[in-house]
Amino acid sequence: MTRQGIEVDGDVDLVERFHAGSLGPEDLACLRFRAGPEEPWAPHPQVAFVREVIDPPAPLPGADLRWQQVLVGSPCGDLRLWHHFVAGRRVASAFGDIGDPDVTTTMRYDAVLGLMDGTSETLEAFEVGGHIAGEWSAMLLLLGISEQPEFVAAMRRSIGTLGPGLRQVGHGSSPG
Q: Are the C-beta atoms of 67 and 82 separated by less than 8 Å?
């Protein structure tokens, strides 16, 4: 089934629920996407990003962080993901909530896709209704980690060619 130039493949019920905006994040991993018939099938960028290895070439002592990420306005409703970094290396990520995060970011789904495909910068993504909560030191650490070449490369690999179409599919609601 195609919508806004994005083809979605998987169980018919899940595809219909995705397009209706009623698919839960737990089902997102069961679908695959592509930006056109000549493109390869791929997982949703957030699913791919959770699976990516983010490992800097050298440890970053003290770069330990528990990050809660909330993406609002996705085709699956609000997506909640968490990431745990130790010495700058992501050691775990999953959908859901992490207990006692050091920093929590809330951003529009389409803004995060723009960060992932390089069409927008972090400040731009927050200017369209995002917000961040946590200790200043944790926020600065997250900014430093997210600007590492390994982190940026993982985002680019995760989104592939899906960014423009998926931004159109999202519901575009603003964080509350």
A: yes
